[in-house]
Design brief:
By secondary structure, the protein is an alpha/beta fold. Helix 5 runs parallel beside helix 6, helix 5 packs across helix 10 and helix 11 runs parallel beside helix 12. 48% of the residues lie in helices and 13% in strands. It contains 12 helices and 9 strands. The protein is elongated and about 70 Å long. The strands form 2 sheets. It has a 6-stranded parallel sheet with strand order 6-5-4-7-8-9, sandwiched between helices.
Length: 293
């Protein structure tokens, strides 16, 4: 879309309008992209200086694209936004999800929402779960996302080898992600790489404190409302989960409430819409002053 808009400008279509690009993905390695996508990215780098602004949804996406030649002077970062009415605390979800999974009402549930892919590090979460359950017998783990089922040979093997039995459940793709997320005591994003992980903001909006690996914009999203650990360090992940589950409930709830406030202030649909509005208004003002001149 960015390239098409730029091409139309070259043919005189919309020449007087401001040209704003949008980029909504991280780019850890352009060589790993499909050949057509890689070609478009490299061509975009050559054309990027013609845009008035390049709007990225994460600082990581900006750094990745600038590393392959996108014009750094055009950088504008506006994060993803979250619907606080859809992702919200839900006291009834806590009881209903535990009943659905046949877990005790006082189970401490740790959730990881991520499609199956090596970069999402499901094996690391399972390894951490083993260590956590050894010291926190009330702990239970939910892994949810596309391909995250016992029909997946790789995951099924890891689950069986873990010896966690019914303490760990693979739920696959679900149509009730907000409800299940609201039932977590702690949410985990253990990825080896990310841009702007929506699942972190969604859990925070549900007032669930998060433990994230220090990749992409994860640490910036969580800030002081959760915990950040090094990527690929399963032992550190296990320690962080154990520590958070061992907190007095009121302390854990306070972190969750602070997480929801952070999403409301920085990442709500309303907050993000204001930033787009301000960007568009500044471009309109610039165009008006240019025409007046």
């Amino acid at each position: 879309g960015n390239l098409v808009a730029s091409a139309l400008r070259r043919f005189g279509i919309g020449r007087r309008a401001s040209l704003l690009w949008g980029v909504r993905q991280s780019l850890p390695d352009v060589a790993r992209e499909k050949s057509g996508t890689a070609m478009a990215i490299r061509l975009g780098a050559r054309c990027s200086a013609a845009a008035r602004a390049i709007v990225y949804n994460s600082e990581q996406a900006a750094r990745d694209h600038e590393a392959v030649g996108f014009a750094s002077a055009r950088r504008v970062v506006i994060p993803n936004g979250f619907d606080l009415d859809v992702f919200a605390p839900d006291a009834s979800a806590r009881a209903s999800v535990r009943a659905e999974l046949d877990w005790p009402h006082d189970a401490l549930v740790v959730g990881c929402v991520a499609r199956f892919h090596p970069v999402k590090n499901h094996d690391g979460v399972i390894a951490a779960a083993q260590a956590v359950v050894a010291s926190q017998p009330r702990a239970r783990f939910v892994l949810m996302g596309e391909g995250v089922t016992m029909d997946n040979p790789s995951l099924a093997s890891a689950v069986r080898a873990s010896g966690l039995g019914t303490r760990l459940r693979l739920l696959g793709s679900r149509g009730d992600v907000p409800r299940v997320t609201a039932a977590f005591d702690v949410a985990v994003c253990a990825s080896h790489a990310e841009g702007f992980p929506n699942v972190v903001g969604e859990a925070m909006a549900c007032a669930v404190p998060c433990i994230v690996t220090d990749v992409g914009d994860s640490a910036r999203i969580v800030a002081e409302t959760g915990c950040v650990v090094p990527p690929g360090n399963d032992a550190a992940l296990a320690r962080a989960i154990t520590m958070m589950l061992a907190m007095p409930p009121e302390r854990r709830h306070a972190l969750g409430a602070a997480a929801r406030r952070r999403v409301r202030d920085e990442f709500s649909i309303a907050a993000v819409a204001r930033r787009y509005r301000d960007l568009y208004a500044s471009e309109v003002d610039l165009m008006a002053s240019s025409c007046a001149g």
